Amino acid sequence: NLVSISNLNLFFIKSILGVETLEPYQERVIDEVWKHERTVIRACHDMGKSFLMARLAITFLNVFVNSKVITTAPTFTQVERILWSEIRGAVNKAKWPLGGRLNLTDWSLGDEWFALGFTPRNEVTGGEGQGTQSSFQGFHAEGGIFVIFDEATGIPVNLWAMMEGLMTQANVKFVGIGNPTSRGSEFYRCFKSRDYHKIHLSCFDSPNLKANGINNVKDLQREIEKYNSL
Asked: C or N: which end of the chain has fewer Cβ atoms within 10 Å?
């Protein structure tokens, strides 16, 4: 059951991937993602969202045999150099060898057991090859599927529709994360839908602000006034 394994995922992230310390908001995200089928997370910059998503992806793939992880972001650069850079780094630094064949944007543990990152570009242009509509819609997995939309505001409408098609299967989990700055985006609309569990990561959750005693707007205003008086 994908909902009942929160503690197992936390154990894997800490004991296998070697993440010794997690912020309270990071543990909350890990817990809530596994308790809900669909989760959307709005987060400010520099909150370590790619760090978290990478480790959730790795954990899902390794905990569930013959599972699949599918990730996408608006551009190939974001796929390769942000989320998949975190995935490659975490796999290579794991305390125990995780095996498989790891490339720039894919990781295979078996013929039907893999993670794949792609850009929506070919979906928009009708191109062929990796990331085409048929390949995205055709995923099935005995062990479950985990779909991650990174920088979800920029994900085009047709990919959201394809994700909905995947969600009709059993044991499929979705997470979209980003900053819902565009009111016309599907990501923004998720926060008005009852179908999604919603998480808000405020700048005040940041350990950098907390370390300087900034826990709310008043504290921030005080620091700004102090800076302006110098």
From this structure: C
Q: What was the pLDDT predicted at 140?
A: 84
Instruction: Answer whether 150's CB lies under 8 Å from 104's CB.
Output: no
Helices 49-63, 24-35: axis angle to 10 degrees equals 40
Whole-structure pTM value:
0.85
DSSP string, 95-144: SS---SEE-SSEEEEETTEEEEEE-THHHHHT--STT-HHHHHT---TT-
Least confident of 13-27, 141-155, 201-215: 201-215
Distances from the Cα of 125 to the Cα of 121, 208, 210, angstroms: 6, 42, 45
Measure the CA–CA gap between 189 and 29, rounded to whole angstroms: 20
Count Cβ atoms below 10 Å from residue 208 Cβ, excluding itself. 10
* Confidence category of residue 8, pLDDT binned at 50, 70, 90: confident
Query: Burial level of 132, CB count in 10 A (0-12/13-18/19+)?
Result: middle
Burial 14-36 (b: 16+ CB within 10 A, else e): bebbebeebbebbeebbebbbeb
Express as a percent the part of the chain with pLDDT over 90: 58
Give the span between the Cα atoms of 229 and 119, in whole angstroms.
47
How many beta carbons lie within 10 A of that of residue 166, not counting itself? 20
